[in-house]
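Think of the structure tokens as a kind of shorthand, similar to the way a musician reads notation: each symbol stands for something richer, in this case the local conformation of the backbone. In the example below we present two proteins back to back. Begin with the first one, reading the sequence and then the tokens, and try to describe in your own words what changes along the chain.
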Amino acid sequence: MLRTGKPPAPFRVAKLLMALREAGARDTALPHCGECGRPRPYVGSRSGGRWGCSPCFDKPAVCAGCHQQRRVVRRDRHGQPRCAKCPDTDGDPVKELTQLITGLDPALDADTVRTALERATKRPAGQNRLAWAVIERPELLTSAGHEAPTPAVLRFISELVAGGATTVVNPACPRCHGVKALSKLLDGQRICRACFAKHAAVPCARCGAVREPATRDAAGQPLCPNCLIRDPVNLEVCVCCGRRRPVAVRLADGVRCPSCRPKEIQECGHCGRTAPCEVSRATGQPWCERCQQRWVTCNGCGTVAQARGGSFEEPLCAKCTNPDPDFWGRCPVCQTTWQLSPRTCQRCVLDQRIRGLLGNDTGTIAPELVPFHEALTSAERPDVALAWISRPKVQDLLERIGRDERRVTDDILDDLPSGKVLAHLRSVLVATGALTPRDERLVALEKWITETVQARTDLTARRILHGYAVWHHLRRLRRRIGDQHTTQLQDLNVRCHVTAADNFLTWLAAQGLALGTCTQVDLERWMTDPAFTYREETGHFVRWSVQHRHAHGLTFGTVRWTGPQGTIDSEKRWADARRLLNDDTLPTADRIAGLLLILYAQKISTISQLTVDDVNITGETVAITFGTSPVVLPMPLATLVRELLANRRGKAKIGTPDDGPWLFPGGQPGRPLSDSQIGLRLHKIGIRPQQDRSTALFALAAELPAAILARMLGVHIQVAVQWQKASGGDWAAYAADVSNRARKAPAP
């Protein structure tokens, strides 16, 4: 082509030849006209890779005005040719268009319409064609924009919307129904880039990946973008490592691969640390790789985006770093993301991948999964969502859900491989409204009990274990929790009792015994076994068996609680309280959880289940409800609770509801921080939950009557009475103290 310059070939080759000649090349050929064969300094293009000069392409035609065969200068609104002497006199299309739009959308005036028209297309002929198309089909402005005959119509609509239009709207893609840039034409409809890529996707001839071809090999077979980059023809020898690899940069001494791309050790202009850096095109300062990937809340506009300027403490997004829109590249899909390169932005890549996993052949997602899709694509950190769905286990689960034609329910998810990934996916589906919430701990407990009972081969032992686990423990648990969800301690308590019963039945079977034939001697022999575990739980099972006549003549004593077993260190309690109130280096949530345990003897399971509704703020007073009566918090603690309410946020980055009720939100969306996590965090700051709670409860029981203790702290009245007896407190001392305070009070 460089020697002949003859078509057919892509028109970009002709543009290359013209640019080379204009730059001073003399050994390359001029592009030749495909009609007359003459070399021409400028040619135009037609479909099929044909080039041509103006005399050959501008064929004369019969003018619709004078009916003479003349050179065509323009065409009228009916597409008929017109010569230079016969202009179209059938009204002013621009004026008609202005009247149509101002009548359709009162928010727009004539100047706004004309400005939008000039920005959409510069040439008068193009403006006339645009006006005729809209006048003929006004619905292009409101609902049928995807049927626009020319791209200029879409640009015109976007300019009107930017000018304040309320009736005129940007068209949605007819395939995915997303309001995006409709840059591709397929079957007479304008569709988005992602849907066109899905339509054009074919298996790569080398790797087999189903993607839109980036090129074709010598045999005409499609190649995906990855195979194009790694094609041996496109590889070059890196001057640094000596390997044939894709070219990342060309320098004076040769090409460099991505691994050997030069980075100077400099002080980063954003974070200030010394590391391998590149020079930022936005600021002209060196910045390290960590700062290039950093997502922040912009100090200028408050949006969450990638840091492109400013300092580490006061970062700025792309728009606030350089407000010039012509400086930045645009995402080719959404046309809204300001970035340093013209590649697809992370949010649009995320949308494409999710549609590939959950959508059908056309990319359409089931209606019940639309909220889940919106929650993923609208996440503040699309890079986090991308990393999550890129995990193999997550991809496998999403593909299974997408391929299943049934509506997504808990039963369908229960058939999938269980694990932490499925549990997190279920929590995201619940938080986004795709699934109704259920008691997951209770469901898992029921499944575990069923498997444990079915594992027993002896039918009699299986019946006994089933009655103990289901009709005793599960029935009592359901009655106790009511409409609430099972706590971790309740779940653990049932599992321990059922495990103890199962172990005891297994031991009896190994000794050739049954529960009905077991004697007291056999039971005591079991108790002296070195492998004996779950003493209290096994005793409960033995007593239950005797009560229900599964065993006879067996006794297993119980140990009555007489008080705390650990040391009661009041000085350490107050020292820890002062440290939590004054140490600003500790996380606010950990300080509040520790103070609620140390000062108000709250269990970790109670602290994790606290909600925003349990905190009542009235003026300067902050009260929290543990039982039936609210407790007014002292000012240092009240200030911390106000701060937590204003800034509470869990670690869940996907599907987190804005109105989450939990005071201590957890790592899964819509769920509180687990008991084990709160315990671990308290241990890290030097709090021992069991011992410190016993100390607090011992001190409070010595000062308050059991009834008041139960109402304020939310403990059972019998538990409050036991602690009061253990601490030596009584009602009479409290009544006498109240009486003395009443006598000492000044007269009004």
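Once you have a description of the first chain, move to the second and do the same.
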Amino acid sequence: MGDNPMLKFVGTGQAYPEKRPAQDRADDFLEISRSFILDKAEEQASRCSQCGVPYCSTHCPLHNHIPDWLRLTAEGRLREAYELSNLTSTMPEICGRICPQDRLCEGNCVIEFSGHGAVTIGSVEKYITDTAWKEGWVEPLVPGSPTGQSVGVIGAGPAGLTTAEYLRVAGYEVHVYDRHDRAGGLLTYGIPGFKLEKDVVMRRVQRLKDGGIVFHQSFEVGRDATLEELRQKHDAVLIATGVYKPRDIKAPGVGAPGVVKALDYLTASNKAGFGDAVPEHEDGSLLAAGKNVVVIGGGDTAMDCVRTAIRQGAKSVKCLYRRDRENMPGSQREVANAEEEGVEFVWLTAPVAFEGTEHVTGVKVTKMRLGSPDASGRRAPEPDPGSEHTLEADLVIKALGYDPEELPRLFGSEDLSVTRWGTLRVDHRTMMTSVDGVFAAGDIVRGASLVVWAIRDGRDVTEHMHRYLKAQAKAAAGERVAA
């Protein structure tokens, strides 16, 4: 036991990478935490108890080999740790940055249950993969032997990029079609740089391009080609568009200028971060500088918006949420970060109207109280009579989540079946839609979810598509022989 590098959780306390001071990080869009140094990564990895049944892996959607690469890190075998981490994930350094580890791996760490504080798994994962990029251990994408078949992937988010990578390695010609001018989906335009710096995403995309994957940017299915036209061009198609239709508020004045959608606001900010000209920043319509900002919502998108507004120089930033802190769906770490940076949370409060005619001037709100649990088990908020008042606002950002777009209409494919929620209906044994040879994965199937689940879905659908394509090739070969 004396030589055992692990099980150090009793004598070594939990530690995360040092966060930059709030006043410093609130002035830029750089990531808020510094990376571990080698000694600290090894020290924190050595706290792992090496469980016989590792709940951290069980509760990771990718079932990453977490205890194994923690041990390799503790032993100083970083390249092996990276290679093991890379076996199950196409984007480990991205997951290390943005996964809600407190709800997944770290939240189910055994030593967390014993009161010693979880192993800081996400920070170690980020460190070993960033080190791999720095040291040149991340190998180029090498295509497999050509199969003579091609695949079209609609959507360049985490699910689509994961499938594109695996199918390219299997030898298929892969084309990725995306509506944006840069690949990455919400990784690029939805998540702010202070959580995920964009060069981290772009180097992943460049690796795929260098491996021969063809990207068609600013390409909208339905406008530039119908789904049927893509089916004719490719041997199989994957729909991995994600969900982009913002949920709205039904309240008087919601259409007033200055009441904007969260994704529009975040996209404009991220485009500015790339150095693009952003007309909505030039005219001030999507810029928080000098304004009283009110963000409505309690999820991670709302946290992205309030923290972006702080960095844009808002006069004040308030986040309205109709439940209390304990019932908030967003990460508690993000709430703490936002509070440190100067965001004010207004709990148990909901909007009832938006004031102003030429431009929004305020949000009329009512206090809420929690009643009996609803169907989801959460206590339902109820208005508290007589509590209405107005909050001053020059910019109101609606961050209420996302629903699927009407893909059958947009894609010109009315035979594409959807569920009552608007997500694509698939045969869960094959992940194929109602249209032969057209598969679907990610949020467009499961609804708005986590990046790590999109990667998992992209990994899973690869197997089904590969099986389908092999069967198609075999059938075609049989027809040629018979002829």
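Compare your description with these statements about the second chain. The chain has three domains: 22-135, 150-244+402-482, 250-398.
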